[in-house]
Structure formats: C-alpha cells, structure tokens
Structure to design on (452 residues):
C-alpha cells in the first residue's frame, strides 16, 4: 500500500474547511473499510448524476494508490460515460449531530473521502473475479469463499470498473460544538449527539436449512448489534 | 405539496432496476425526512465533484414540487459552478445487507432519491432565514426556535441555494435475497441483515448548565437509542 500523503492535486484539495482535512492515507483506508455505500458522480449528457453504489477495495491493487472497485450492469446508463471521463466517488460516514448555541455553528460529525480519477474497465477474467469477490467481502468479510464462482452468464451481465485511489482527499469533523468567543455569553444547551450504524439479527430465507454462518454473525457484532 | 408522480423526465428515469422504482411522492418526502446527509454532484472544471451536505426541505416551498434547501460557505468552490448548471442531489438510506446464495445476487436494501435541477440562489432575507431554520430543524425538529436569529455577519458568510423537487426519482429495495429458479438446488445460507442508524445519549458541552432539551431527547429516541 502506498504511503503517499492524500490530496496530491488541487482538485482534491478542499477549498473550505482545511482544518478538517486528513492527510493520513491509513485513515482513508479505514473509512473505506467502515463504509458500505459510496456515491458515484458521473456526467451523463449535460448534467451530473450521483448514484449510490457498493464497492470493494484492494489496497495492493494494480492502480496507483490502490484500487477501488465498482460494479454494475453492463446495461447501466452511467457505464459508458464513466469510462470516457474523470469521475468522483465519495464515501461518507455520519458520526453525529452537532448542536451549537448558534444556528451558524450547527454541524455534523462525519468522515468523508473524495476520490477523483479516470475509471478503467476491468477486462482480465482473474481480476474481474477477484474484484467481485472484494465487493462481496466488503459487505461480509469471508462471504465470497462460501459461494460458488460466478457463472459465465453472470460475468457477461456485470461490468467491473477500477478507480485508482491515488487522487483522494479526506475530511473529518469530530467532537463538540464550535465555540465563538461571544458564545459563552449566550445561554441555552449545546452539545452533540453521536450517531452510528447498527445491524440487527440476520433474517434467514425460508428455503434455507443451514445455520447463519459465523462470518455473518461476526459482521453483525462488528457493526454493533441493534 | 404537489402530488405529481415522480420521474417526470427521461433523465430521472432509472435505466436499470425499474422494478425498484418508486412512483409515490409521499415516499420521496418520507425519505428526505429520514435522511440526514445528502450528496451534491456538481461539475467543477472538467470533472464532477460529489460532496456530503446537510439539507432542509420545504414541501410547500416556492419551487415546483417543493424546495430542497442547501447551504454553504460563500467561499465554497462548488458554489459558483452550481449556480450555472443543473446539479444532482442524491439522498440514500441503507436499510440492510442482502446475502444471496450467489455472489451475483448479493445486494443491499436501501432507499435512494435522485433530484436533478437548476439551483436558485436564495437572496430574499426572509426566505434565507427560513431556509437556514429548516436545515437546523432537519437535524432536530424544533431546534431553530431555541436559537437566536442569525447575525448579519453569519448571513453574509452563508450562501443558501434552493433546488426544485419537481424532477426526482426514487428507488427502493427491501426484503430478502433474490432467488433464481436454479438457486434452490444450491446449498448454503442466504438471508439479509437489517441495518439502521441509531443515536446515543447527547454529550453536553462543559460550559453548559442547561439540561438537554426535550426536543433533542425526542430526536435521540426517534433515531433509535444506541
């Protein structure tokens, strides 16, 4: 895994809130590991489209900075445009609501990463299989090994694209409400409300006789039992 | 609030997964009410940028279909470009991990809305104050009424933009794993893991002597106590 600092270019350098910028690539990788959904921004026609997508990460992947893998239907409208332009993938985890004494300083605690790059369509069969396994294992580590290999028909229906993790930035806000010097003279409650994601007990399909796999139970525990 | 169906144009009609399309505007408004973070897609220079943003909603707002309000620093790099183009705002809530017998049918349960439109910069002082109150009340309903009005300096530093909710689409997936006819002959566990957001007890700033307001406690309970 590369240890280059984040934000190597002006276009991934935040114009605002630089105090919240994070320059540690390990924290980017930790955020990508925590998050389950990414938002992909692609220009389709004359306007941007932002779509929620699952993803997988290979920190030692073939692309500069490691590889972020996305997949989609070969019939998806965003696929062809995405291969002809630079796209943006943003991953955000909400960590809390920040309630200051002023509306102006109301905020959120969060971690957010912005990755910009030119997607590469993955054509090599081995890399495609590996990328799809990474997407499945991103949901539940160890899950891919429980499943049979993708069929030829499934592979033909699925496009896999790779985005280098080289050009990325990360911002984070944590802790309590920002206090302006004058705010101490105000009255009223201020503080923050931690927010997090939890999972509930797995729901087994009625045609299944096998027990819930340990890997799934571990994932539920890791996400925090709801 | 308009009752027009969603997806009135081709560019907000999903190209894939039309079975997951939701045509009920009330469910769009319910999703916007549930979600705390939106992702704004804007073309800045030669590529899209996707940024997490707080937002507020006025179902009876002055724009066609109601109004989605965003705010940001007047110095934000995305602001000027956003006012000269159509942008996309996407709101996604993750509801679960779907673990099928095949990797191909691994999926997520989610609700996601895509809104496309030309932002309008809000200049009217009354509408700006109201919009900023809506953003604060989106975090904790009733919070804005506890705070003093924004100062002239705060208002001068804050841009408010309005996006019509007219051109929007929504997709939703819920329930268990998709079963292909052949999957019954496979073995192995399949099911889904419900996922949701919870809040923890509010953390009061150490300079505050007032108790946690009821509105904040209600919000924590509503989000689900963690």
């Amino acid at each position: 895994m590369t240890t280059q600092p984040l934000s190597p270019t002006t276009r991934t350098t935040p114009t605002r809130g630089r105090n919240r910028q994070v320059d540690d690539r390990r924290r980017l990788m930790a955020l990508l590991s925590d998050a389950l959904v990414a938002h992909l921004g692609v220009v389709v026609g004359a306007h941007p489209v932002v779509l929620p997508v699952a993803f997988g990460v290979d920190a030692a992947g073939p692309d500069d900075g490691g590889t972020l893998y996305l997949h989609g239907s070969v019939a998806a409208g965003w696929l062809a445009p995405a291969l002809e332009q630079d796209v943006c993938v943003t991953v955000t985890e909400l960590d809390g609501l920040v309630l200051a004494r002023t509306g102006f300083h109301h905020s959120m605690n969060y971690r957010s990463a912005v990755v910009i790059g030119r997607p590469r369509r993955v054509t090599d069969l081995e890399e495609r299989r590996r990328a799809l396994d990474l997407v499945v294992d991103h949901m539940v580590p160890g899950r891919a090994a429980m499943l049979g290999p993708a069929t030829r028909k499934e592979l033909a229906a699925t496009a896999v694209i790779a985005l280098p993790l080289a050009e990325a930035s990360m911002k984070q806000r944590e802790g309590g409400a920002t206090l302006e010097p004058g705010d101490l003279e105000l009255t009223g409650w201020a503080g923050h409300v931690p927010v997090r994601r939890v999972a509930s007990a797995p729901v087994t399909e009625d045609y299944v006789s096998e027990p819930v796999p340990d890997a799934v139970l571990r994932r539920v525990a890791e996400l925090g039992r709801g």
